[in-house]
């Protein structure tokens, strides 16, 4: 089952969120970033070539022109292969783990997989980014030493940077699967985690995080009223 | 269920053409209850709706029907299938084989369930037969995997026998199929993410359980994969098959000869290291020289590496094996580059040209230094120096340069011979040649080093004198006992003499400072050149080329983790995933497998370096350490 919605990112660009529902325990989200536009490409190429031509008129050396062409080509290839991310995918498999894939414009894919045993929770955090306050989705990893502590925060969708409405969609589905996984896990603390969900302390002193409600009827509430305060 | 009790073997043999074997129907008919099993596992708690994971090798996806053999991991509720046992078989022999494998590999290999590769619609009788097999090989949960030939539709279920008390309530769990490439998982080595520095390494293994257990199982069950598909044993297995043994005679000979050659080389190397450790070389002048020359350091490092490579002890862990391989490749590359350098030098007869050019270059350097000193003795940069001190220092240094030039001219007939022998040492490796180059630079600029030491000592004395007299000027004193500055009452004549000396030193300061500045800059230039050479030598020494090559050509051998891909999914069918190896990024390969080196890193930070320069303390940023550190 597949459906597609369109959202916008924090800068106003268009994003497309594709959700694939394979089974109640396996879900995939694919967020496509705005494509590279012809206008920006032309602008950069013209700037570089004009600068090279300016240098050429000063130095009368034709090597500068060929070097400029070379640099433009290499720069474009490098940009497509190392910098420009086409889409980011989040795959959640109940009882296996969470996998994040970034696909670059040249086809390269870089994947990270986190086992379910290491995942503490998935939350939405606030952050101050230049002059804005933005929201981002992140995975909290368990601390091997302290059972209820958090050792690391892994942010998701770093290049797409979607806005809060898109994040809420992803967050809800993730929480469904995590709740299902904790309910059916064989570890003895599985049951306790659901009960103590609302008493969890916040992670970063700088931001707030969203409390997870077991009562599904509260999902229709205005999200703004659910912002928790940092402890 | 007569099939189950006695005739399983005959029925199995009768079903030799397993290709046409229909499989059990999807809806399970309630089987006649048989008592569950010995080997049932009452401890595993089952929650309703739990999803079990079955790791299935891709090489068995087209195998004929049979039994699934593998390991059940209850903590992750996952089953790792290692092989498929085909019909016909005798259960006793299967159990014997599994016991053998279990003993050889310490892995709990059991029969996990049945595998069915059918072409047509299923038959009822075989369905019962396969169900009944669950009673012979009792295992909870009992898996039944089934695939239609020629299509991609799979079905699988796992059943739990509930026991005679509730015959109709044998529960079923959902199963998720995860395909894995057996050969790649067998050969790969998992690198867990780097632990945080304040954690012990042992703590993280607990959390890295899940997939590491799968890799571990497959890697340790190599004993199960020894049988070939053409073997005529009592039990026919289907699993990953190797392509065959190496048939090349040269490779076999090389393997056979490796043992004695290693032994011989190890003896030779131990002789050399014993000779170098003998008492003669520990006498004072020689030991001092050895510690200063970077060539000796490099040679010693290489000797240690070669001893490790050719030692007759086998490597205990994969990390040690990689280290040995990296060292061997590094030594070979070094020698190859050295030989290339040697051939290039000889082809263009560069050694003769170098020898001819060396003396004029040394002369030129000395001449430039003389000009510099003449400039300093005049009015350098318009500054007014103290005439008398200027002349004294300038003449002192000029005399030294004169000595130096005479010394160089004395050595000139022997230069070519020395250089030729030095060039020959390049066949020991490029790093040795570079170290010798660095040492030659140090020897040729020895006079600059001497000037720097003279200038620095003078300046240091002056600074200390100034600071102490400045304290006297203010009426204070340095208390050596308490290591602090105390006030003190001086006599009048003490104050008078102190102030006089202070004034003299202050007015002589610019001259000394200028000489110190000039020679320190020259010394820093030489040190920078030497530092670059050492950096290059360090790079060649420590780069793990074998690991990088392995990452390039066989990326599945070094695994950072796994990645999953969801295969075509139809509703009603189980979820199928493909597990692939996620290779280690190059930066982590270099970081994990770096070879230990002498470590010529500067010991000082920039701040402490500036402080030492200001106070005139001697700096040795690239000093070779006496005791080796990793």
TrEMBL record, chain A:
Keywords: Glycosyltransferase, Membrane, Transferase, Transmembrane, Transmembrane helix
Organism name: Delphinapterus leucas (Beluga whale)
Domain Phosphatidylinositol N-acetylglucosaminyltransferase subunit H conserved: 89-158
Record's compositionally biased regions (Basic and acidic residues): 211-224
GO molecular function annotations of the record: glycosyltransferase activity
Annotated Gene Ontology cellular component terms: glycosylphosphatidylinositol-N-acetylglucosaminyltransferase (GPI-GnT) complex
Pathway(s) this gene product operates in, as recorded in its UniProt entry: Glycolipid biosynthesis; glycosylphosphatidylinositol-anchor biosynthesis
InterPro entries in the record: PIG-H, PIGH-H_dom
GO biological process: GPI anchor biosynthetic process
Region feature Disordered, mapped onto this chain: 182-231
A Pfam entry, by short name: PIG-H
Family: Belongs to the PIGH family.
Residues annotated as transmembrane: 36-56, 62-82
Name of the featured protein: Phosphatidylinositol N-acetylglucosaminyltransferase subunit H isoform X1
Automatic annotation (TrEMBL), chain B:
Biased composition (Pro residues): 22-36
Pfam families for this protein: Gpi1
GO biological process: GPI anchor biosynthetic process
Annotated signal sequence range: none
Region (Disordered), start-end ranges: 1-46
CC annotations in GO: endoplasmic reticulum; membrane
Composition bias type Low complexity, residue spans: 1-18
Keyword entries, A-Z: Glycosyltransferase, Membrane, Transferase, Transmembrane, Transmembrane helix
Coiled-coil regions listed: none
Key word Cell membrane present: no
Gene Ontology MF, one: glycosyltransferase activity
Transmembrane segments: 327-345, 392-410, 422-445, 494-518, 524-548
Stated name of the protein: Phosphatidylinositol N-acetylglucosaminyltransferase subunit Q isoform X1
């Amino acid at each position: 089952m597949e459906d597609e919605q369109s959202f916008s990112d924090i800068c106003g660009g268009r994003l497309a969120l594709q959700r694939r529902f394979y089974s109640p325990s396996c879900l995939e989200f694919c967020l496509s970033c705005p494509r590279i536009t012809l206008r920006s490409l032309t602008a950069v190429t013209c700037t570089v070539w004009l600068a090279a031509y300016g240098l050429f008129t000063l130095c009368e050396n034709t090597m500068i022109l060929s070097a400029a062409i070379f640099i433009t080509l290499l720069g474009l290839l490098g940009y497509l292969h190392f910098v420009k991310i086409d889409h980011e995918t989040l795959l959640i498999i109940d009882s296996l783990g969470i996998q994040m894939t970034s696909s670059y414009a040249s086809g390269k894919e870089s994947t990270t997989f986190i086992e379910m045993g290491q995942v503490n929770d998935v939350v939405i955090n606030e952050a101050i980014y230049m002059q804005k306050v933005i929201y981002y989705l992140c995975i909290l990893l368990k601390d091997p030493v302290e059972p209820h502590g958090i050792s690391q925060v892994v942010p998701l969708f770093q290049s797409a940077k979607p806005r809060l409405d898109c994040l809420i969609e992803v967050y809800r589905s993730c929480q469904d699967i995590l709740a299902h996984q904790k309910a059916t896990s064989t570890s003895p603390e599985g049951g306790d985690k659901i009960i103590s969900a609302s008493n969890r302390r916040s992670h970063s002193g700088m931001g707030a995080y969203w409390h997870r409600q077991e009562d599904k009827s509260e999902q229709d509430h205005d999200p703004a009223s659910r912002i928790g305060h940092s402890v | 269920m007569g099939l189950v009790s006695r005739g399983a073997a005959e029925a199995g043999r009768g079903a030799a053409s397993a290709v046409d074997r229909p499989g059990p129907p999807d809806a399970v008919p309630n089987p006649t209850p048989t008592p569950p099993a010995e080997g049932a596992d009452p401890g595993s708690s089952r929650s309703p709706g739990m999803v079990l994971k079955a790791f299935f090798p891709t090489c068995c996806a087209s195998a004929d029907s049979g039994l699934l053999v593998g390991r059940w991991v209850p903590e992750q509720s996952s089953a790792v299938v290692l092989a498929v046992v085909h019909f016909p078989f005798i259960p006793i022999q299967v159990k014997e084989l599994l016991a053998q494998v279990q003993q050889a590999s310490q892995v709990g290999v059991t029969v996990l369930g049945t595998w069915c590769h059918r072409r047509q619609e299923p038959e009822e009788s075989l369905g019962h037969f396969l169900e009944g097999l669950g009673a012979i090989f009792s295992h909870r949960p009992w898996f039944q995997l089934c695939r239609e030939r020629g299509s991609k539709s799979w079905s699988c279920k796992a059943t739990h026998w509930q026991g005679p008390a509730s015959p109709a309530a044998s529960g079923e769990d959902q199963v998720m199929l995860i395909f894995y490439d057996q050969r790649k998982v067998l050969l790969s080595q998992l690198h867990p993410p780097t632990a945080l520095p304040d954690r012990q390494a042992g703590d993280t293994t607990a959390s890295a359980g899940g997939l590491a257990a799968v890799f571990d199982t497959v890697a340790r069950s190599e004993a199960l994969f020894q049988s070939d598909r053409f073997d005529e044993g009592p039990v026919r297995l289907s699993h990953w098959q190797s392509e065959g043994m190496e048939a090349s005679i040269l490779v076999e000979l090389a393997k056979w000869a490796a043992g004695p050659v290693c032994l011989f080389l190890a003896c030779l190397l131990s002789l050399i290291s014993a000779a170098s450790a003998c008492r003669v070389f520990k006498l004072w002048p020689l030991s001092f020289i050895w510690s200063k020359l970077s060539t000796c350091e490099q040679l010693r490092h290489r000797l240690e590496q070669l001893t490790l490579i050719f030692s007759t002890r086998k490597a205990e862990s994969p990390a040690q094996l990689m280290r040995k391989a990296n060292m061997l490749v590094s030594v070979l590359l070094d020698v190859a580059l050295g030989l290339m350098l040697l051939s290039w030098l000889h082809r263009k007869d560069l050694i003769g040209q170098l020898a001819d050019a060396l003396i004029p270059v040394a002369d030129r350097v000395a001449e430039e230094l003389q000009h510099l000193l003449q400039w300093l003795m005049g009015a350098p940069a318009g500054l007014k120096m103290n005439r008398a001190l200027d002349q004294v220092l300038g003449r002192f240094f000029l005399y030294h340069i004169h000595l130096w030039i005479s010394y160089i001219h004395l050595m000139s007939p022997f230069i070519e011979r020395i250089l030729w022998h030095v060039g020959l040492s390049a066949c020991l490796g490029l790093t040795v040649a570079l170290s010798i180059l660095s040492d030659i630079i140090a020897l040729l600029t020895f006079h600059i080093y001497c000037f720097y030491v003279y200038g620095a000592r003078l300046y240091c004395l002056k600074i200390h004198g100034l600071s102490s007299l400045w304290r006297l000027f203010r009426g204070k004193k340095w208390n050596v006992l308490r290591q602090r500055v105390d006030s003190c009452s001086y006599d009048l004549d003490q104050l008078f003499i102190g102030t006089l000396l202070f004034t003299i030193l202050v007015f002589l300061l610019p001259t000394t400072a200028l000489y110190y500045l000039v020679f320190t800059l020259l010394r820093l230039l030489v040190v920078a050149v030497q530092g670059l050479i050492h950096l290059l030598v360090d790079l060649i020494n420590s780069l793990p080329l074998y690991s990088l090559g392995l990452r390039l050509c066989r990326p599945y051998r070094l695994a950072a983790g796994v990645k999953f891909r969801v295969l075509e999914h139809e509703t009603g069918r189980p979820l199928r995933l493909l597990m692939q190896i996620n290779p280690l990024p190059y930066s982590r390969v270099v970081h994990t497998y770096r070879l230990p080196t002498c470590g010529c890193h500067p010991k000082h930070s920039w701040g402490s370096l500036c402080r030492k320069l200001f106070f005139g303390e001697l700096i040795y940023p690239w000093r070779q350490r006496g005791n080796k550190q990793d």
